[in-house]
Amino acid sequence: MIKHQEHMVAPLSAEHHRRANDVIAKIKLAEQASKHTIELIDIILDLTEHGLHFYFLSPLERIGAGSMTMKVAKVGLGSTYKGMKMVISKVLKNLDDRQILMLTEFLEEIMHPAEAAGIAKIA
Asked: Which pTM value belongs to this model?
């Protein structure tokens, strides 16, 4: 379990958190989890894109990287994301119901609501 290992975190918007939980709930209640594969792919792609931005572009913004550096980084990440999108979509479309349910369990394991009112949430 991830909670019992050293790990990194990324903030998640309330909208991403809600959408992911909605998809997870639909899949867990469905007779055929695979009927919600497209919705699962969509949220995983959104979370992936958000994570790429947070872990790579946010630090560059924080250190005040120049506009040319930011443009190069964004183009590179855009290309990376396009490749990842193709792979993620292809792989997830081939999962069976059991595997999809296991994937939703993993998502539940890594997603957490904000812990306290004093912690700023992303809009």
From this structure: 0.83
Distance of alpha carbon 123 from alpha carbon 78, whole angstroms: 23
* Matching residue, tokens 């912690």: 119
**Domain extent listing, the chain:** 10-110
Kindly list the distances between the CA atom of residue 30 and the CA atoms of 24, 25, 58, 97, in Å, as whole numbers in the listed order. Answer: 10, 9, 37, 10
9-50 pLDDT tens trace: 888 898 999 999 999 999 999 999 999 999 999 999 999 999
Spell out the SS3 assignment of 58-93: HHHHHCCCCHHHHHHHHHHHHHHHHHHHHHHHHHHH
How far, in Å, CA of 56 to CA of 77, rounded? 9
Residues 6+ apart with CB under 8 A from 82: none
Q: What does the pLDDT look like over 65-114, one tens digit per residue? A: 999 999 999 999 999 999 999 999 999 999 999 999 999 999 999 888 87
- Which residues neighbour 123 within 8 Å (Cβ) at sequence distance 6 or greater? 13, 14
